[in-house]
Amino acid sequence: MVVEKYDIVIVGGGPAGLSAAYAAAKFNARAILFEKDASIAHNIRTSGVTWIEEIEKLGISRDHYNPIKNYSFISPSNEVNIRGNDATACVLDVRSVYQHLAFLAAEAGSEIMVKSNVINVVINSNNRISGLKIRTPKGDMMINCDLVIDASGFHSFIARKIGMVNEWKRYGLGAEYECYCENVDSETLVFMVGGEYSDAGYAWIFPLSKKRIRIGVGIGRPESNADPLEKLNSIIEKKLKPLDKIGKVQPIEFHSGIIPNEGIRKSTVSDGLILVGDSAGQANPLVLEGIRYAIEFGRLAGEVGAKSLAQNSKRESLLEYEKIWKNKVESKINSALKVQSKWIGLDDKKWDKEIEILKDMSQEEFLDFIKAEFTASKMLKLALNHPKLAARQLFNIVLRH
Ligand SMILES: Cc1cc2nc3c(=O)[nH]c(=O)nc-3n(C[C@H](O)[C@H](O)[C@H](O)COP(=O)(O)OP(=O)(O)OC[C@H]3O[C@@H](n4cnc5c(N)ncnc54)[C@H](O)[C@@H]3O)c2cc1C
Predict the structure, then answer these.
(1) Which is nearest to 371 in space by CA: 337, 332, 317?
(2) Does 294 have pLDDT greater than 90?
(3) Alpha helices in 309-388 (DSSP H)
(4) Cα–Cα distance between 53 and 88 in angstroms, integer?
(5) What's the distance, CA 215 to chain centroid?
(6) What is the distance in A from the centroid of ligand 1 to the CA of 377?
């Protein structure tokens, strides 16, 4: 068996792992990334909606996304449309973004091996990871290393193998088709709520161009046992609104994914190990949003990891990573979970009333809301500006309980 030595091994070629590989190499570490699928972004596990300002700051340019100005919320007997003057959100061409991230990592000097499944972890006498076993097209390999970055997504493969974390118990399951579509408004995101769409979550239509859309369904476990693919097929077959207005819909690609939905991992570093991306619970579960965080915190993990090599990548030398990312998202994720726990149990009638909350918001308030920017001062302003019951209730959920 081939045995080699690297400074840093990154497990998983999603946005978190690719960004970690890029930064690790940029900060002079000898880095290698393993991805079990046949190519980067071979299996798409995401819908790709994000925010233009934030994603451009991360170097993802206009070539990689479709800009979005408007938002539409559809419940069984209600509809709220929010129109903007400027594009604020976007739908990413996920495959082109992830492959761009892979090019950046390669250019910085990281190695990447696709179709290479990390299958085991080697622990040394000090009880820390000293190497990984990988099944590759060239045969099995053993890589010895100083630091492992677990960017394996939902399953936190490495951290679970060594007993550092358990399998997530609460999660969202998504099924989505990328489709040809005859007649779609390419500047509007559509969210659909109520039992026919999802009994514990929501459905969506995200346009990539005038003729290309993603239609999907997300369902929360353990609240529901429903199969998101069955729901998705039924929405398309029954042409539930707004599909009745968009002409022929022809699926051309299927995507599915799982997103953790119980808050962050308490600990995301240990001697010789960093968890990043969904493996660490860094996505915001309310709006299923994790890509920009995976890129940002992936780069942070790679940088802190490379700098920690001089201190033998001891836990203490990695804590800065955990401090920075928690400071940025922990409280937002906690607030989002509280809002979600209210929404997840709503029936159709309550949804019809609940989406009214969005009608009176200004564009700025709405964007904070949909980005799950639930800071105390923003929520206070919202409650003061909108004395209506719904806004007050939201304020109470986020800040009081
Ligand atoms: C249905 C759904 C819709 C979503 N929509 C959005 C959205 O619109 N916008 C948004 O920002 N976020 C969205 N998210 C969340 C977003 O997709 C995640 O937060 C993001 O993908 C996390 O990136 P990651 O790199 O941590 O993990 P992943 O993207 O899951 O990447 C992990 C990679 O590791 C590889 N891997 C796993 N185990 C091994 C192993 N043992 N050996 C080698 N390779 C391995 C996998 O093959 C995979 O490529 C959505 C999630 C779901 C489930």
Answers:
(1) 332
(2) yes
(3) 315-343, 348-354, 363-370, 376-385
(4) 7
(5) 17
(6) 32
Q: Work out the average pLDDT over 36-50.
A: 97
Annotate 349-366 with b (16+ C-beta within 10 A) or e (fewer): eebbebbbbbeebeeebb
Indicate the average pLDDT of the chain: 93
In this structure, how many other beta carbons lie within 10 angstroms of the beta carbon of residue 38? 10
The CA distance from 118 to 151, in Å, is: 12
- Distance between Cα 43 and ligand 1 center (Å): 10
Mean pLDDT of 28-44: 98
Write out the two tokens for 326: 């928690």
Specify the pTM.
0.96
* Probe residue for ligand 1, chosen from 11, 22, 43, 46 as the CB with the greatest number of ligand atoms within 8 Å: 46
Indicate the pLDDT class of residue 401, thresholds 50, 70 and 90. Answer: very low
What confidence tens digit (pLDDT) does each residue in 282-292 have?
999 888 899 99
Q: Report how far ligand 1's centroid is from the alpha carbon of 163 (Å).
A: 21
| pLDDT tens-digit series, residues 68-117 | 999 999 999 999 999 999 999 999 999 999 999 999 999 999 999 999 99
Please list every protein residue whose CB sits less than 6 Å from any atom of ligand 1: 11-17, 34-37, 45-50, 117-118, 151-153, 155, 157, 174, 218, 257-259, 277-279, 283, 288-291, 294
Best CA proximity match to 17, nearest among 1, 50, 40: 40
Please give the Cα distance from 289 to 280 (Å, whole number).
14
Q: 248 CA to middle of ligand 1, Å?
A: 30
The residue whose CA has the least distance to atom 19 of ligand 1 is 290
Cα–Cα distance between 300 and 138 in angstroms, integer?
31
Q: What is the DSSP letter of 189?
A: E
Residues in the chain, how many?
A: 401
Specify whether the CB–CB gap between 259 and 174 falls below 8 A: yes
Atom of ligand 1 nearest to the CA of 280: 26
Distance separating alpha carbons of residues 386 and 380, to the nearest angstrom: 10
Q: Retrieve residue 206's tokens.
A: 């995200």
